[in-house]
Design a protein that fits this description.
This protein has 509 residues and is α+β, with helices and mostly antiparallel strands. Helix content is 56%, strand content 15%. The chain is rod-shaped, with a radius of gyration of 48 Å.
Length: 509
């Protein structure tokens, strides 16, 4: 039973096709790498030359059709003159020598005419002939524009076929004769002279096209190089040069006086570079200042810690004056130490990446309330409004810091309010629920709310605090930690107090 072995024609043909595909793909990749490796001027020059050659091709195709028609009409005209000369011979008997001379002059093999419904062989051929193709050049009326378009495309196809069919054919051409529609002249001629003439015509057009494309490409290249290429290369070189040392203002591009798009790009680039250089200078100064402040805060925190230990001992003294002022001194030291800790923590280059896990929210808030001494009797209430089994996908330490900062802010606001206010004692409420793949946490208080002037810089460090002695770091740190989780924090409009909402999305699997 026959089968396709490794040496069978089918297997060999498939292998040849696979090899051809690999070579084609390899050639495409190599040409693509070569094209991508070219500079902008070289690409501009090549594309301009290619487009000019494409335009020349579009011009060449109809031009060769017109050249073929002109050449054939010239043969018909020469044949008509030869026929008139033959008909003028006395007696109608044409000597062979004259017939041969007329045929040679007209460059045809035979000439026939049709007048008044009678067809006559004016210049007969030497012997039998085989006609390979027939072409009728008489004007044909076109009923629709589509028929005229099809006729023109047919003429283009006939002209292109002359280049590929060789030069050994014999063709018959029919053309108009006189004013009568029924009168015509027909000639038989070899296609070789037409083939040779069209080859010469095509080569002439090709040479002229190459010259025109090179001249046009050079002119376009010079024009575009001055208008676009050199300015863009200048901009790109400046960008690379500026990126090496962006803090060096001497590397900022000097815009030209151009008012077009290139001039706008240069001016905008110079403006961005100046802003970036100034911003980097400011960042460097702030970094140096922050380093110095961090060192001062570190030492100050240690000194305050020592003072706190001493003040703790004062509370054991029975003196009434000491007992009256010691709690205030301890509270002031606690705030100072907390400020130093927040400043040091915020001054880090970046927070550690969150280590997310499913955290039970209730135990975490119990730790927050224990650390802040909530609830406090009398004065500050504490209420949790969510499912005790609710879990949040977050870093436990980060979430603790966020909730602790927000609850501490609420405690400080409520502490500053009188205990005998008409609304009664203040209360902090933490509500939570899930919305799809997000955990929503709201921290509410029934204090006076956030003033309008503080909302613009609410989450900006050192700028959001409206409380005397506040640092403005709590909400800034909370916003940074929530953003690291891909979440968001915002102030929600409410009729009473302040409501901060946190949205924490679950991790994407």
């Amino acid at each position: 039973m026959p089968h396709d072995g490794p040496d069978s024609p089918k297997v060999q043909e498939a292998a040849d096709h696979a090899t051809a595909r690999r070579r084609l793909a390899s050639g495409y990749r190599a040409s693509r790498r070569a094209w991508l490796g070219l500079g902008l001027p070289a690409k501009l020059l090549l594309l301009t030359a290619a487009f000019v050659m494409l335009a020349e091709v579009l011009i060449f195709v109809p031009s060769i059709a017109n050249y073929r028609l002109t050449w054939l009409h010239d043969r018909l005209m020469g044949s008509h003159l030869a026929a008139l000369a033959a008909e003028a011979v006395p007696g109608g008997k044409i000597p062979d020598s004259l017939r041969m001379e007329l045929l040679r002059t007209a460059a045809v093999k035979a000439v026939a005419t049709r007048r008044d419904g009678q067809r006559r062989m004016v210049l007969p051929p030497d012997g039998p002939m085989t006609i390979d193709a027939h072409f009728d050049l008489r004007p044909m009326p076109s009923d629709t524009p589509w028929q005229e378009l099809a006729r023109r495309f047919g003429l283009i196809g006939d002209a292109l076929a002359v280049y590929f069919r060789g030069s050994d054919r014999t063709i018959r051409i029919v053309g108009p004769l006189g004013m009568e529609a029924d009168d015509f002249i027909e000639v038989v001629l070899p296609e070789g002279p037409l083939h040779a003439a069209m080859i010469r015509h095509g080569l002439n057009i090709l040479g002229l096209s190459i010259i025109i494309s090179l001249i046009t490409a050079a002119l376009v290249y010079v024009a575009l190089s001055g208008l676009l290429v050199r300015p863009m290369m200048r901009i790109s070189r400046n960008m690379v040069h500026f990126a090496e040392r962006p803090e060096d203002q001497s590397r900022i591009i000097v815009p030209s006086e151009r008012t077009d798009e290139v001039g706008v790009a240069e001016r905008e680039l110079a403006s961005m570079q100046r802003q970036l250089a100034q911003l980097l200078l400011q960042k460097n100064r702030l970094a140096q200042l922050g380093l110095a402040v961090s060192k001062v805060n570190h030492d100050l925190r240690n000194m305050l810690a020592s003072a706190q230990l001493i003040s703790d001992r004062l509370t054991t003294l029975p003196d009434p004056t000491v007992q009256r002022f010691a709690p205030k001194l301890i509270a002031s030291l606690d705030r100072a130490i907390s400020f130093c800790n927040d400043s040091l923590r915020f001054g880090r280059a970046e927070e550690a990446q969150p280590r997310r896990e499913l955290v039970l929210l209730r135990p975490l808030l119990d730790e927050v309330s224990d650390g802040l001494g909530l609830p406090r009797e009398p004065g500050i209430g504490w209420r949790l409004d969510f499912d005790p089994l609710l879990r949040v996908d977050a870093d436990r330490e980060h979430l603790y810091r966020v909730l602790n900062n927000m609850c501490r802010n609420a405690v400080q606001v409520l502490e500053s309010m009188p205990l005998d206010r008409p609304e009664g004692p203040g209360e902090i409420t933490v509500a939570a629920w899930r919305e799809g793949r997000e955990a929503i946490i709201e921290v509410r208080d029934d204090g006076p709310g956030v003033p309008e002037r503080a909302r613009a810089n609410l989450f900006t460090a050192f700028a959001s605090s409206q409380r005397k002695g506040g640092t403005g770091l709590g909400l800034a740190i909370a916003a940074e930690l929530i953003a690291a989780h891909g979440g968001r924090i915002c102030l929600v409009d409410s009729d009473k107090g302040a409501v901060f909402r946190i949205a924490l999305p679950d991790r994407v699997a």
